[in-house]
Amino acid sequence: MTVESSAMEQPFEIVSVQRAEPPPDGKGPNWYRYVIAFQGSNNIHGCRQGGLKTVTRAVQEMVAQLNERQRLGRSGKSSRVQLVLKKKPRN
């Protein structure tokens, strides 16, 4: 097994979900930045509005979908997984 294939087999995982300032185009309170690690030292950074539990749940769902997509890709099946994130209803 090469170092590259070993890194490809590492699952996506949440590194952190932390309170943050809104992004430049973001409006409203309660923003969180998240980091998802994959393939060794690569990271996905993003931000999302909502409560800590809601944001964490959404990021967990993303990670599960990414890992399923990666698993299907390794098994040789040609399929697509579309990441669909539900928008938080506005009050």
Could you characterize what this model shows?
It is a single chain. With 91 residues, the chain is an alpha+beta fold. It has one domain (3-74). It is built from 2 helices and 3 strands; from the N terminus they run αβββα. The chain has helices at 3-8, 52-74; strands at residues 13-20, 31-38, 42-49. Strands 1-2-3 form a 3-stranded antiparallel beta sheet, covered by helices on one side. The chain starts with a helix and ends in a 17-residue tail after the last helix. The model is unreliable at 1-7 (pLDDT under 50).
Can you give keywords for this protein?
3-stranded antiparallel beta sheet, globular, disordered N terminus, about 90 residues, about 25% strand, alpha+beta, 3 strands
List the helices and strands in order.
HEEEH
Going across the biggest sheet, name each strand in turn.
1-2-3
What's the story with the biggest beta sheet? 3 strands, antiparallel
Taking all Cα atoms into account, the compactness measure Rg is: 15 Å
Number of DSSP helical runs = 2
Can you give the helix content as a percent range?
A: 25-40%
Query: Distance between termini?
Result: 52 Å
Give the CA-based shape.
Answer: globular
Number of individual domains: 1
Instruction: Please report the total strand number as a whole number.
Output: 3
- Mean pLDDT over the residues: 82
Low-confidence stretches: 1-7
Oligomer kind:
single chain
Estimated share of beta-strand residues: 25-35%
